[in-house]
């Protein structure tokens, strides 16, 4: 069986090779933002919101 290079195969391979590292980078950026010490106070306040009685 011989592999045929088509536009669909090329587009699929391009999407797989470009989007995977992009999404991994976005995921790492979100985790870094969430765990950054400067943001701790903001997240602590947000965590207490459901427990407050207004």
TrEMBL record:
Keyword Transmembrane set for record: yes
Transmembrane segments: 16-36
Superkingdom of origin: Bacteria
UniProtKB keywords: Membrane, Transmembrane, Transmembrane helix
Alphabetical list of InterPro entries matching this protein: Cbb3-typ_cyt_oxidase_comp
Protein name, entry field: Cbb3-type cytochrome c oxidase subunit 3
């Amino acid at each position: 069986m011989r592999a045929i290079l088509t536009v669909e195969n090329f587009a699929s391979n391009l999407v797989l090779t470009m989007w995977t590292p992009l999404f991994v980078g976005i995921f790492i950026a979100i985790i870094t933002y969430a765990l950054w010490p400067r943001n701790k106070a903001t997240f602590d306040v947000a965590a207490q919101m459901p427990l407050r009685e207004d």
